[in-house]
């Protein structure tokens, strides 16, 4: 992650929670819409709780070099989930040709305990096809209503993640991606359908 590109700097601006504390943020938005920007930014140890109507918890757009570690990312349970329209659609939203991104040892889930339905984000981690050189490791992603990890991108490592109680579309989706190493992930307890309030879900492994 700490490579020099285009003669740029390699030192990160790091936001690290004090030991024993987990400061709460509503969302993180690293945004560049012109040319790729050397962000060199790191967040470690925060809780991210987007309000209702906020499309994402963490967005990294048109940028290079981002590290996100030990985060607790939770969806507003009262918020509707409609991708691209309203609601908390994305836990992590990596887009617009971003590169060199690390997402490590984080939890992406709904705000409350498992209720028997898919109450989490629409996508846990969503990476657009023009992005590359990312690492997703040691994360727990649960109760997404579409994909745990959506990453039809290039040159990546996806390893040691625990993805469970998702809707059944796919725990990890890579359609069209290339150069991606996927290993040692646990994908289990897919919800084959959405039960009514009186039903108990059929968990499949």
How much of the polypeptide forms β-strand, as a percent range?
over 45%
Rg, nearest Å:
16 Å
Give the CA-based shape.
Answer: globular
Kindly state the number of beta strands. Answer: 22
Order of helices and strands: EEEEEEEEEEEEEEEEEEEEEE
Alpha-beta content class:
mainly beta
Oligomer: single chain
Main pleated-sheet profile: 7 strands, parallel
Low-confidence stretches: 1-7, 81-86
Q: State the strand order across the main sheet.
A: 1-4-7-10-13-16-19
Average pLDDT taken over every residue: 84
Distance between the termini: 35 Å
- Helix amount, in percent? under 10%
Mind explaining what this structure looks like?
Helix content is 0%, strand content 47%. By secondary structure, the protein is mostly beta strands. The chain is globular and about 55 Å long. The chain starts with 12 loop residues before the first strand and ends with a strand. Residues 1-7 and 81-86 have low confidence and may be disordered.
């Amino acid at each position: 992650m700490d490579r020099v590109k285009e003669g740029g700097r390699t030192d990160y601006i790091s936001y690290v929670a004090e030991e024993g504390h987990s400061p709460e943020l509503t969302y993180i938005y690293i945004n560049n819409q012109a040319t790729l920007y050397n962000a060199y930014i790191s967040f470690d140890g925060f809780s991210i709780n987007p309000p209702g109507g906020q499309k994402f918890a963490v967005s990294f757009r048109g940028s290079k070099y981002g590290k996100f570690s030990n985060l607790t990312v939770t969806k507003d349970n009262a918020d509707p989930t409609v991708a691209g329209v309203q609601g908390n659609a994305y836990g992590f939203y990596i887009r617009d040709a971003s590169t060199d991104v690390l997402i490590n040892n984080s939890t992406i889930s709904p705000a409350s305990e498992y209720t028997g339905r898919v109450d989490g984000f629409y996508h846990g981690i969503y990476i657009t096809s023009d992005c590359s050189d990312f690492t997703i490791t040691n994360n727990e992603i649960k109760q997404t209503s579409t994909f745990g990890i959506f990453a039809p991108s290039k040159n990546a490592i996806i390893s040691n993640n625990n993805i469970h109680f998702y809707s059944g579309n796919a725990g990890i989706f890579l359609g069209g991606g290339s150069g991606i190493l996927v290993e040692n992930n646990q994908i289990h307890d897919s919800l084959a359908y959405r039960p009514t309030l009186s039903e108990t879900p059929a968990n499949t492994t």
